[in-house]
């Protein structure tokens, strides 16, 4: 990657983190593009060049997580569900931007409705023919399968909250993975439970 590309990525990250910090401190609805530009020390048009709308700031996290899920599954097709979760979590602990994770969590706690809206927006934007995980076991299934999918997503959220808070350890990850294994064994939920879908109560 050349110097120009690295500079653009650095500027983009700075703008993103500035926006997330403002959303956490003063609220999503009260923050303007002008506020973000001032905090980032760039022109408003520069902000809009990287993030055309305010919603793009809060869809950044679920979009990047969804893309990484797909990438990992494509690299390891046919991997068992619990092994896939373990792989995904190890990858996150090794590669996540922890400052972005912490600010995203702070933003979500301060603006829970906006965080939920971001999940729905990501699902809406996904093209029908885009790569995806195997069909969710809880999609259109019975109540037990639906509960299993929701429970797995809740455990996943706790895992990433642990990363953001700096509390995730090998022991904690192993314990959470054991919980996922138990849920999967009891309910039959699988890979696609991690990918938000409009049909899921957790995404509405």
Automatic annotation (TrEMBL):
InterPro entries: DNA-bd_HTH_TetR-type_CS (IPR023772), Homeodomain-like_sf (IPR009057), HTH-type_TetR-like_transc_reg (IPR050109), HTH_TetR (IPR001647). SUPFAM superfamilies: Homeodomain-like. Residues 32-51 bind DNA. Keywords: DNA-binding, Transcription, Transcription regulation. Gene3D superfamilies: Tetracycline Repressor, domain 2. Residues 9-69 form the HTH tetR-type domain. GO terms for molecular function: DNA-binding transcription factor activity; transcription cis-regulatory region binding. It comes from the Bacteria. It holds the Pfam family TetR_N. This is TetR/AcrR family transcriptional regulator. The lineage of its organism: Bacteria, Bacillati, Actinomycetota, Actinomycetes, Micrococcales.
